[in-house]
Amino acid sequence: DAMVIQNPRYQVTQFGKPVTLSCSQTLNHNVMYWYQQKSSQAPKLLFHYYDKDFNNEADTPDNFQSRRPNTSFCFLDIRSPGLGDAAMYLCATSRERNIQYFGAGTRLSVL
Amino acid sequence: AQKVTQAQTEISVVEKEDVTLDCVYETRDTTYYLFWYKQPPSGELVFLIRRNSFDEQNEISGRYSWNFQKSTSSFNFTITASQVVDSAVYFCALSEASGFQLSFGAGTTVTVRA
Q: Which member of A21, A37, B58, B102 has the greatest number of CB atoms within 10 A?
């Protein structure tokens, strides 16, 4: 029944080793988002795709990239993870600017 | 710039007590949307409600109710007869009609003790 699916749920990577997180959706929503949520903080938007158009938030570090090969999938690439990138990464989708539905998140640890 | 403030960091209650979570927002837009999301320990953000700026009608859904007051820029959330399963972090959020960003408050951790 899960409509926004994130894999894996837990990811451990090494300092500086590239990592990719994935998100898929069955809602056929045209907008997909990536949020970063650090411990005991609110989610913070990194970027979103409106259809195929990529929209980066002004303060998102260059270390974070994203790909959306089709409507259903979106990937978050962290090129050189640092210790400060350890967080929960949440994917969300919406139809236009309507309600955002979130996945269960991927908790990233950086060793 | 939009901003959401949740004054309570943590609330602890005994089961069956009512609990009210405060949310105050700031925006320059006349058209905007307010949300409440629940984040249980599993981590997923669960959508609870959306209200648009032109609809000040209060809403009740089971044990949940919401009070939107434009005059005080507040959108408060009450859980009636709380249960242990209500234990979670609750986020109030705002989005402006012109954009895609959801601006979240800092969250309120609700702990319901049996």
A: B102
Contacts of B101 in chain A (CB under 8 A): 45, 57
Q: Kind of pairing, strands B108-113 and B10-14? A: parallel
pLDDT classification of B100: cutoffs 50, 70, 90: confident
Q: Mean of the pLDDT values across residues A3-30?
A: 95
Measured between beta carbons, the chain B residues lying within 8 angstroms of A100 are 47, 102
- Strand pairing of A31-37 and A53-56? unpaired
Tell me the β-bridge partners of A31: A50, A94
* Percentage with pLDDT > 90 across chain A: 94
CA distance A89 to A99: 19
Q: A46-59 pLDDT, tens per residue?
A: 999 999 999 999 99
Pick the closest to residue B20 from B71, B73, B82, B72 (CA basis): B82
Nearest CA-CA partner of B75 in B63, B64, B87, B89: B64
